[in-house]
Amino acid sequence: MAERIRTFDWSLTELGHIDTWPGSLCSAVQLLLASPLPMVMLWGRPGYMIYNDAYSRFAGGRHPYLLGSPVELGWPEVAEFNRHVVDTCLAGGTLSYHNKALVLLRDGIPEDVWMDLYYSPVADDDGHPAGVMAIVVDTTDHVISERRRQEAERAYRADNERVRLALNAGALLGSFVWDIKADVLSADERFARTFSYPPDQDLANLPPLIAEMQIHPDDRGWVQERINQSVETGIPYNAEYRVLRPDGSYLWVLASGCCEFDEKGEAFRFPGVLIDIHERKTAEESLLKFTRNLEQRVADEVEARLAAEEQLRQSQKLEAIGGLTGGVAHDFNNLLQVIAGNLHLLARHEPDNANVQRRVSASIAAVERGAKLSSQLLAFARRQPLSPAVCDPRQIFEGLGELLQRALGETIQIKVTAPDHSWHLYVDRNQLENAILNLAINARDAMSGEGIIALSAENIALDRKFCAGKGIVAGDYVCVAVADTGVGMPPQVLAQAFEPFFTTKADGQGTGLGLSMVFGFVKQSGGHIEISSVVGQGTRVQLYFPRSLRPLPGETTRHDPQHRGGHETILVVEDNEAVRGSAVDLLREGGYQVLTAANGDLAMQMLLDGASVDLIFTDVVMPGLIKSADLAAWAKVQNPPVAVLFTSGHTRDIISRNHQLSPDTYLLSKPYGPEALLNKIRNVLGG
Predict the structure, then answer these.
(1) First and final CA of the chain: distance in angstroms?
(2) Rounded CA separation 457/397 (Å)
(3) Residue-wise pLDDT tens digits, 415-443
(4) Among 90, 230, 493, 537, who pairs with 237 as Cys (CB 3.0-4.6 Å)?
């Protein structure tokens, strides 16, 4: 290095030509060149590097390019650290580090290194700090070796602790020493017995092959890998494996040991112990089995949660559609009521005009179709008012028999099955009959008007797994099913079957609201609906309703009212002037005395002022402070009570709970005709 320093062109640096160097610098350079330790001089504020042979070996591939280079350029990855060194020493301070951790680039690759570093200032001829003398000792190998030694000690202590615990627990199966060069084992009697050595075998000369053959075939390979690893690296040996017992079963053991090396670094001795861990492994296997079962349960719960979330999304969609449908249905049914009322009045005023009667009949039929469409929308959105009652599925089937045969035609056979002791339902009987009729007509169309439709009822208990994500709870249910042998539906059609306005029929042959209406009715009744279908084999729709423990009501004979009119006084409360006018005309033609009010506030004022009425005929949804429910509450407490008949295109749950009417609440849905109105009036007054 002395020759390199002498021939280097120092005039390119701030130090100038070597002949002009101050005596203090020359002395410092002579000092570091004579040192066997890696030393480097950092001269001036830039820290121009001058170093000895030992440092050149430390510098590696950066030598000789470091000579005369500023230290921050020579070691850019630790530039900030070296800047601090230069600033400190030029200010007269010293620095020292023991096993300082740095990251240096070696062949362009970052490498962790540890070093002992000593820095002191070097004075110029005037006695002022002008440079830094650094002693650099690479301690990386020592640090790594020390860490390995500490890890080995920790492992050794852990092994000792394990052996101590095993001894205390009585789980020690024996000890052994493997003479690596002679390849023989010496062991105690318990070790030899564990590996099924012959009873007369010399315990100081046990062939390792016998022990190896007793190890489970699946464990031998990796056990040998652990042994080889310990012999090659000296790391402690720990292996859990199975040993064959005399009865053919396997025993779980833990073998622990550590390879010993001679002064040449060659492995010569391998002592160890054998510990019984069978109970622990058995417990671990039981825990693993339990964990797997738990994971399956969690997976089932997640699946159920996803199904519930899908159900929630469906419910939210229905809720949104229901809100929109309800508002539209109310106004739409009011319009239909005005049209229907005036058409009926027109027909009565022109009884002998054939053209008028023909046109009125066609218009009323259109109104009825519009009313049916509105009713289907409300049913799908679960907004239709229901009048539930306890009923027997067999009675429903018997009552529907003649109607179904007329609706389906003679080429369709109806097969009905029901248990002798069928559980009761609590549903709106009319709506259930409509749902069954709707499903039967769909089945007829799927069979092109010819085949067998199976109508059945079944008592069934549903478990939690079936009910998960379906919006129902486990318990007893009655399953009403309609099945056909028609063309069936492919999966993509089946997935959309309950969507409103979805239909596979040609334009004009279906609204796509039939199944949607059935879906809404079943859900609103607290039940569940499922549909299964196979192309070419047919379709089956199952309606699940909660079992009712209430008794059937007493049989009553239904009589159509004989009186079409009456002399009573009726108060008509309706905010829509056109609807109110048509209702008044229909009632007056029926012979009733009629009072009117445009809202609940005016109606209540009339009643409080002494108006005497026999029945209040009120719209459900009205503006003002006094609501229709308030009028009904007032009417109930009068002596005698005043009858109340509600009418609405959509009740909005003002007079119902979850759209289910109580037995003493009467409702006439809009649009209605004269006969429906007068019959309902007579029923309410007679009730």
Answers:
(1) 123
(2) 9
(3) 999 998 899 999 888 888 888 988 888 88
(4) 230
Map residue 662 onto helix, strand or coil.
coil
Question: Hey, what CATH class is 393-548 in?
Answer: alpha beta
pLDDT digits (tens, 9 = 90+) for 192-251: 999 999 988 999 999 999 999 999 999 999 999 999 999 998 899 999 999 999 999 999
* 92: CB partners within 8 A, 6+ apart: 121, 129
Q: Cβ(463)–Cβ(469) under 8 Å?
A: no
Host H or E run for residue 312: helix 278-349
d(CA 196, CA 193): 5
CA distances from 97 to 118, 119, 134, 300 (A): 7, 9, 11, 60
Is the pLDDT at 660 greater than 90? The verdict is no
What letter does residue 36 receive in the DSSP assignment?
S
Residue 464 is classified by DSSP as H
C-alpha dihedral, 449 to 452 to 453 to 456, nearest 10°: 170
Hey, what's the torsion of the CAs at 115, 116, 119, 120, to 10 degrees?
-160
Assess contact for 371 and 361: CB atoms under 8 A: no
- Residue type for position 327: G
509 by DSSP, 3-state: which?
coil
Which residues are 273's β-sheet partners?
Answer: 175, 256
Amino acid at residue number 24: S
Please say whether the beta carbons of 528 and 472 come within 8 A: yes
**Looking at domain 2-138, which of 3.40.1110.10, 3.30.450.20, 3.30.70.2640, 3.30.70.1060 is its CATH number?**
3.30.450.20
Confidence of residue 406 (pLDDT cuts 50, 70, 90): confident
Give the pLDDT mean for 363-367: 80
Secondary structure in 3-state letters for 103-167: EEEECCEEEEEEEEEEEEEEECCCCCEEEEEEEEEECHHHHHHHHHHHHHHHHHHHHHHHHHHHH
**CA 636/CA 629 separation, integer angstroms:** 11
Residue 235 tokens read as 């790391």
The residue behind tokens 């464990």 is 219
Give, as one character, the DSSP assignment of residue 76: G
CA-based nearest residue to 236, from 220, 255, 215: 255
How many CA atoms does the CB half-sphere of 645 hold within 13 Å?
Answer: 23
Cα–Cα dist 31/120, whole Å:
14
Residues of the chain with CATH 3.30.450.20: 2-138, 156-276
Nearest-CA neighbor of 548 among 428, 378, 680? 428
Give residue 559's pLDDT.
46
In the numeric block, which tokens belong to residue 138? 């690479």
Q: Is 328 helix (H, G, I), strand (E, B) or coil?
A: helix
Quick one: CATH architecture of 569-686? Answer: 3-Layer(aba) Sandwich (3.40)
What is the longest distance spanned by two Cα atoms in the chain?
141
Q: What is the pLDDT of residues 96-143, one digit of tens each?
A: 999 999 999 887 789 999 999 999 999 999 899 999 999 999 999 999
Residues of the chain with CATH 3.30.565.10: 393-548
548 pairs with which residues across the strands? 424
The helix (H) or strand (E) run that includes residue 26 is helix 23-34
**Could you say which DSSP state residue 215 is in?**
B
- 368, β-bridge pairs: none
Whether the CB-CB separation of 453 and 484 falls below 8 Å is answered with yes
CB 188 within 8 A of CB 204: no
DSSP codes of every residue in 174-187: EEEEEETTTTEEEE
Q: What contacts 65, CB < 8 A, 6 or more positions away? A: 74
CA 224, distance to chain mean position in Å, is: 46
